[in-house]
Amino acid sequence: xxxxxxxxxxxxxxxxxxxxxxxxxxxxxxxxxxxxxxxxxxxxxxxxxxxxxxxxxxxxxxxxxxxxxxxxxxxxxxxxxxxxxxxxxxxxxxxxxxxxxxxxxxxxxxxxxxxxxxxxxxxxxxxxxxxxxxxxxxxxxxxxxxxxxxxxxxxxxxxxxxxxxxxxxxxxxxxxxxxxxxxxxxxxxxxxxxxxxxxxxxxxxxxxxxxxxxxxxxxxxxxxxxxxxxxxxxxxxxxxxxxxxxxxxxxxxxxxxxxx
Length: 260
Known about the structure:
Largest sheet: 6 strands, antiparallel
Strand content: 15-25%
Low-confidence stretches: none
């Protein structure tokens, strides 16, 4: 007859205690894994947050840099045109003082000062007829195109209404592909009346210059190179693309209108 284990002097293992200990160990491992996982998730989230913040900061810095470049270009163009205006006003005053006696010499003198900035300098009679023209390397017929006559006619209309300040045109797209800006200034003569103290101020013509837009682009727009491969492009106030070094086929198209 066989004996029971306890009668034979054997001790039955405590399996229930072993299971409890094993479960506690597994739970501890799960807790450790969970804590490590949470720490890793937090680290990843913090890394992503820092990365996104860095990207946003880099983006802000890049935008600020582009804004600075654009402002510098705008100020440069403004000063460029202001210098031409000031010279044109000085020429207008000389012509007024001399009564057009030295008009040819005065025009040539002004052109020599501004020749790196302008293509033509010219004088128009009060009734709008081109009277004097000076440019060593350009043809006079460029000023006789319908586009130029139309835009000068609008300027003259403003001067006849009493404006005494220089007038700057919008960008003029010529039929030959050139783009120009025209600046005009009125010329006034002082005519004494019978009474010595009385003087009539008479509009006696207009002095103008034509600026090739390519000159402005070469000086102020083309040199702008944001980043390694960046470039600048130019729009007019209506959204028409005027300059784009990568897509010249898009020039004279409006970016706000969809077409082929």
